[in-house]
Amino acid sequence: MEKADLRSLIEAILFTSTEAITLDHFLSVAPDTDKDTLREVLQELSTEYENRQGGFVMREVAGGYQLYSNPRWHTQIQQLFSKPLIVRLSRSALETLAIVGYKQPITLPEISEIRSCNAAGAIKTLLECNFIKVLGRKRVVGRPFLYGTTREFLVHFGLRDLSEMPQLQEFEELIGEKVSPEIFQQASEQSEMEVEQENQAAPEMEAAPEAAEEETDIFEPPYIQDPE
What we know:
Layout: H1 3-16, H2 23-29, H3 35-52, E1 56-61, E2 64-69, H4 74-80, H5 91-103, E3 106-107, H6 108-115, H7 120-128, E4 132-137, E5 145-149, H8 151-156, H9 168-175, H10 192-207, H11 209-215
Antiparallel strand pairs: 1-2, 3-5, 4-5
Helix pairs in contact: 1-3, 5-7
């Protein structure tokens, strides 16, 4: 495929897609193209959009590429559409999301301990918004679920990967809320009770390793599909 046709195809795909498109997705419809050529064309398009200050920009998020409206016109776009373009979360849900984002994988009891209140309601909301997902179960008594962020979380906040998570002040500016500094502190050492629980659970897990392995399977959100 000639380069001009490849540029046209990439633009058409990005324009019609509602989620980030990976290089593998592009290759599935342009098999005669290599990844280096794709990256080169994508970079050229991104630079072109940025230089001409048009109505949209390209961002690399969640391991793929997606078109976004130019942030310059954010206010005007909000005025035009009756429904807000931003998912509205309560302070409780935002703080819980921050805890999961910075301390994942993490369990509900650990989140509730940091927030000094029951976080079950906030977890339910975040699961419904597809911002977090169940990663598996922790190997302690009770086998609580472990939670982590989803690809939708990266896309919504415009992050390439978790290494781009902002610092405390930046995160507060991003969500428009003050959050507890404890969220950003290093995870504390295991408590004596937790260690004792793990020791008690160890014989049971050794006796039935297949069952334990099955319970720690990773559950992916339904919107992530492998390219054919």
